[in-house]
Design brief:
The protein has 658 residues and is an all-alpha fold. It is built from 37 helices and no strands. Among the domains are: 261-328, Alpha Horseshoe (Serine Threonine Protein Phosphatase 5, Tetratricopeptide repeat), CATH 1.25.40.10; 525-651, Tetratricopeptide repeat domain (Serine Threonine Protein Phosphatase 5, Tetratricopeptide repeat). Helices cover 76% and strands 0% of the residues.
């Protein structure tokens, strides 16, 4: 038995120099005080203990009972004095040393508690609660191998003592002996099926072991005993979320919020779940409530940023992530997500700064590398983009964005087969990504592998039947194979079964335009517009045909009607601006481009078209700035490159770079 250098005399009150006999009167008071304490009437119990002591200050039972009641009342310093007085009068009973140990544990005086339990064991080696208590004290002192032995000793003295089995399980978890820990928890629960804490601890262990279903079952048994326990409900939410059972997790979070609508953490959890269920507007509302309750909750701001990103509201997303970063500057997820939003607004240079910071903080975060690769790509920095994409895939071979970005770089470099290979790697990870299928098809098309390109474009059209770009490339592929008319035949055959199908009619019209048969294309478009006069794709196609044929006034009417019916479609502004430009109405064209750029500041083509309008108005320096902005957003914008060259040529030799 380990001994402790602990002097009892330093902790106790002075002992009166007499030893009185316990009278019947004070003994009766002690018994009644004990009964009241058992009933929870601590105040009246304390009154009776004090009366007993007033009658006989040498009654050690009265001092002992008084100390225990004071402990239950949370008056620990007074309780300590009372228990020490009891032990000074009679140090023999082991139970008194256990009571002192329990009090000292509550006061976080773990070393002193261990000594008290040691004293109890020295008086009665079979005191189970003392072995259990000294095990707890040693656990708190970080001496887990020793605490394990103490809990085993407790169970040797009493194999039915469930708390020792549960505490043994806790210690074994720390020692990473998970199989033995599970046996200990099961033993505790077998001894006491209503042992809620053991059920929760077992659930936590199952979660740690990845056995989420078993964890949930254990938490459910605990909740059957305490249905409104928010801590257990929250643990169940975490396990359900880890299993991907988001709907049940959401139901459980809602249960917590029924119990406590002011629980900010649960509103944060709800926001996270709704985001992952694709219910972004509802998630915004949940994060708003979390922020109202806890404005400094960085996770709530982060969740809100994610919702805005997913809704395409990138300015709001940036503002939310910036607030999150004010509170948690080292949060790499917030930095990466804010960079993503900046990237979508065409602010690739600012996005790079966020990705650089994220990588400096967490060099092994693959998503930061893959998004930085995309930023470099947008800036035309292809070598850097390819290097970052390679780093991302080395960290995470399942990073589809990195493989796709690498493919786009190779496509720009003219390495078409290698690009198609990288797109294939991305598609193995995300088979339903229509944009990657489209890029693969373009790579194969440019590699003159038209048959495989056709298969890729067909896959895009399966996923996204209304994709005009995929259909155009498909028709081009057929034309390269000498089968251009086949596109018309295919749609005609399909239209026999569904003659008013707008998608098929639009495909036919597109094919006819590409085959230089605009009159027939207009007939197909008329059928669409007869049924749906505001069909945006049909109106765009009709307007483009009118522009191509020089019917600018007709194009203006078409795109004005499109703009009125669909004010949020950028094409209505772009092509209407082109029609005004081609008809010599440069001021009106400029006004349209300014209008669209208020809504879509990252629209490179609008900036370049604006530059042309300014140049026609003689505002050459402004035109050059507009072309520069277009090229900042898209280094590959050929219209902007040519427009800037022409504007500089007009100004030469007075041109001074801005």
């Amino acid at each position: 038995m380990r001994s402790f250098p602990w002097i009892l005399a330093a902790l106790v009150l002075c002992v009166p120099l007499f030893s009185g006999c316990v009278s019947h009167q004070d003994a009766d008071l002690v018994r009644e005080a004990g009964r009241l304490a058992d009933l929870g009437d601590f105040n009246q119990s304390l009154v009776l203990y004090d009366r007993a002591i007033a009658i006989n200050a040498g009654n050690s039972d009265a001092w002992d009972g008084r100390g225990r009641v004071l402990h239950l009342m949370g008056r620990n310093e007074e309780a300590l004095a009372s228990l020490n007085q009891s032990l000074a009068l009679d140090p023999a009973p082991a139970g008194r040393w256990v009571a002192l140990g329990d009090l000292l544990l509550a006061m976080e005086r773990n070393f002193d508690a261990a000594h008290a339990y040691d004293q109890a064991i020295s008086r009665d080696i079979n005191t189970t609660s003392a072995w259990n208590g000294i095990g707890i004290a040693y656990s708190r002192l970080g001496k887990f191998p020793e605490s394990r032995q103490f809990f085993l000793a407790a169970l040797r003295t009493n194999g039915s003592y469930a708390p020792a089995a549960k505490n043994l399980g806790d210690t074994l978890v720390v020692l990473q002996k998970y199989s033995e820990a599970l046996q200990a928890y099961n033993q505790a629960i077998a001894l006491d099926p209503s042992y809620k804490e053991a059920l929760v601890a077992r659930g936590d262990l199952f979660s740690r072991l990845g056995r989420k279903g078993d964890a949930i079952s254990s938490y459910d048994l605990a909740l059957a005993l305490d249905p409104d326990n928010q801590d257990i409900l929250s643990r169940k939410v975490s396990a359900l979320t880890a299993m991907g059972n988001l709907q049940d997790a959401l139901v459980t979070v809602d249960r917590i919020l029924e119990l406590d609508p002011g629980n900010a953490t649960s509103w944060v959890q709800k926001s996270f779940l709704l985001n992952n269920l694709g219910r972004f507007n509802e998630s915004l509302e949940a994060s708003r409530k979390a922020i109202d309750l806890d404005p400094a909750n960085a996770v709530a701001w982060n969740n809100r940023g994610y919702s805005y990103n997913s809704l395409g509201m990138f300015e709001d997303s940036i503002a939310s992530y910036s607030r999150a970063l004010d509170m948690d500057p080292g949060n790499v997820a917030s930095l990466t997500s804010r960079g993503y939003a900046l990237l979508n607004l065409g602010r690739a240079d600012q996005a790079l700064s966020d990705f650089d910071r994220a990588i400096a903080l967490e060099p092994n975060m693959s998503s930061a590398w893959s998004y930085r690769a995309l930023a470099h790509y947008r800036l035309g920095q292809y070598s850097e983009a390819l290097a970052d994409a390679g780093r991302a895939t080395s960290l995470n071979p399942s990073d589809a964005i990195a493989w796709s970005t690498g493919g786009m770089v190779l496509l720009e470099r003219g390495e078409f087969q290698n690009a198609a290979r990288d797109f294939d790697r991305a598609l193995r990870l995300n088979q339903n990504a229509s944009d990657i299928w489209l890029n693969k098809g373009i790579a194969l098309y440019r590699a003159r592998n038209y048959n495989e390109a056709l298969a890729a474009f067909d896959r895009v059209l399966d996923l996204e039947p209304g994709s005009v770009t995929a259909w155009q490339y498909r028709v081009s592929s057929l034309m390269q194979l000498g089968r251009g008319e086949e596109a018309v035949w295919i749609t005609d055959r399909q239209l026999k079964g569904d003659p008013w199908n707008s998608t098929l009619l639009l495909r036919k019209a597109t094919a006819l335009v590409m085959l230089n048969r605009p009159g027939e294309a207009q007939l197909a478009l008329s059928r669409i517009l007869e049924k749906d006069p505001a069909n945006p794709d049909a109106l765009v196609t009709r307007g483009r045909i009118q522009i191509a044929s020089g019917d600018y006034l007709g194009a203006i009417r078409t795109f004005e009607s499109l703009k009125k019916a669909h004010p949020d479609i950028p094409e209505s502004f772009v092509y209407l601006g082109i029609a005004y430009y081609r008809s010599g109405q440069y001021e009106r064209a400029l006004a349209l481009y300014d209008e669209i750029l208020e809504k879509e500041p990252a629209f490179s083509q609008a900036w370049s078209n604006r530059g042309y309008a300014l140049a026609k108005l003689g505002r050459i320096q402004e035109a050059i700035r507009s072309f520069d902005r277009a090229l900042e957003l898209d280094r590959n914008n050929i219209d902007a490159q040519y427009g800037k060259y022409e504007a500089i040529r007009i100004m030469w030799p007075s041109y001074v770079p801005g």
